[in-house]
């Protein structure tokens, strides 16, 4: 086997493992543990990509702060967060319930307002997100090099939020 074939096989196994960690569209125990570690790491800004942040949002049921590691996608000078697991994720429901008020943390807490991008306008952001967030690729049924028209077919299933500075502090 040549090196390219070995590399592709290793990548396929890694992606299959990542999908397994989120089987049924929800993080399993291993994924939850990895997410806790990543949230701490991203918050501290240690050994992580510059786009890696931790989203903190108030839980809609408990009122407790929920921390989720995310990747900021940049397009046109603005930042966006995308739900790689689609609509049915707790952090998306919590952000909606909080009226978009949240905190992004990377070395410091930054209060933000997350404004949901309408479903018909999400395709370019989803494509850019897959370029910038390799860990999300196994969860989105598109090749990141696919034409934008193909992203339009699935974009409605993946919430995208534009990150804006918060006008008032997050409570």
What would the average pLDDT be, to the nearest integer?
A: 92
Low-confidence stretches at least 5 residues in length (pLDDT < 50)? Answer: none
Strand-pairing-aware structural class: alpha+beta
Give the tally of β-strands: 7
**What is the H/E string?**
HHEEEEHEEHHE
Largest sheet: 7 strands, antiparallel
What is the secondary structure topology, with strand pairs?
Elements: H1 3-21, H2 29-44, E1 52-58, E2 65-71, E3 73-75, E4 78-82, H3 90-97, E5 101-105, E6 109-116, H4 123-132, H5 148-154, E7 160-165
Antiparallel strand pairs: 1-2, 1-5, 3-4, 4-7, 5-6, 6-7
Would you kindly provide a written description of the structure presented here, covering whatever features stand out?
With about 170 residues, the chain is of the alpha+beta class. It has 5 helices and 7 strands, in the order ααββββαββααβ. It has a 7-stranded antiparallel sheet with strand order 2-1-5-6-7-4-3, sandwiched between helices. A hairpin with a 3-residue loop joins strand 5 and strand 6. Helix 4 packs across helix 5. The longest helix has 19 residues. The N and C termini lie far apart (about 55 Å).
């Amino acid at each position: 086997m040549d090196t390219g074939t070995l590399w592709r096989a290793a990548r396929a196994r890694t992606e299959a493992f990542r999908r397994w960690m989120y089987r049924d569209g929800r993080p399993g125990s291993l994924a939850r543990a990895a997410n806790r570690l990543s949230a701490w790491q991203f918050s501290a800004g240690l050994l992580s990509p510059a786009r890696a942040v931790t989203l903190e949002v108030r839980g809609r049921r408990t009122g407790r702060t929920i921390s989720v590691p995310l990747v900021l996608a940049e397009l046109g000078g603005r930042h966006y967060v995308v739900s790689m697991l689609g609509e049915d994720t707790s952090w998306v429901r919590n952000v909606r319930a909080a009226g978009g008020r949240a905190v992004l943390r990377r070395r410091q807490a930054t209060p933000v307002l997350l404004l949901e991008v309408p479903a018909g306008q999400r395709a370019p952001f989803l494509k850019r997100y897959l370029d910038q967030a390799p860990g999300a690729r196994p969860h989105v049924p598109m090749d990141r090099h696919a034409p934008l028209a193909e992203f339009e077919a699935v974009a409605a299933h993946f919430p995208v939020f534009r990150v804006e500075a918060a006008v008032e502090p997050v409570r």
